[in-house]
Inverse folding.
């Protein structure tokens, strides 16, 4: 699915739930720090979305969509522990883009793939709004944190490095 298809899917989902959000158009940018400056949000309000691959034993591979504040890094050991895994790493770009349905730098903080479990760090949710690229490098969404929680239904776990 192209970024435009995922963008449309996102906006439809938000509209169907009556979410409080706004679309922000900006220069094409996928790096959290740079796009936050373009949008005018604090780095800690940005939803940094990283897909993590976790090995559970020798034969099982699981994928997690880890969402952390933009000023933090994903703690791979914490994600691995949630699965009682034996190994964790960032997913390959190919796997991440296939599971997310959009290119790196535009991954949504929502999972539309049953093979991708969604985790969000509670620190991100302390903000009244979260900001993220909306499956496109040139468009972002500012979304009510409460609406995000009720629509995305993530597992809230401490997964950011301290």
């Amino acid at each position: 699915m192209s970024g435009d298809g995922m963008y449309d899917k996102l906006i439809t989902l938000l509209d169907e739930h009556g979410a409080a959000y706004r679309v922000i158009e900006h220069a094409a940018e996928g790096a959290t720090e740079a796009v936050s400056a373009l949008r005018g949000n604090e780095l800690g309000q940005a939803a940094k979305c990283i897909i993590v691959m976790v090995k559970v034993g020798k034969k099982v591979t699981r994928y997690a969509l880890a969402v952390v504040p933009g000023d933090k890094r994903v703690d791979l050991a914490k994600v691995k522990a949630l699965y009682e895994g034996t190994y964790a790493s960032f997913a390959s770009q190919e796997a991440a883009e296939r599971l997310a349905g959009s290119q790196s730098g535009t991954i949504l903080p929502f999972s539309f793939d049953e093979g991708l479990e969604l985790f969000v760090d509670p620190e991100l949710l302390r903000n009244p709004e979260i900001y993220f690229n909306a499956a496109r490098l040139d468009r972002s969404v500012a979304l009510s944190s409460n609406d995000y929680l009720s629509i995305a239904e993530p597992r809230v776990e401490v997964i950011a490095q301290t």
User: Anything to note?
Assistant: The chain has a mean pLDDT of 95. The chain has one domain: 3-156. The domain at 3-156 is CATH 3.90.960.10 (YbaK protein). The first strand starts at residue 21 and ends at 25.
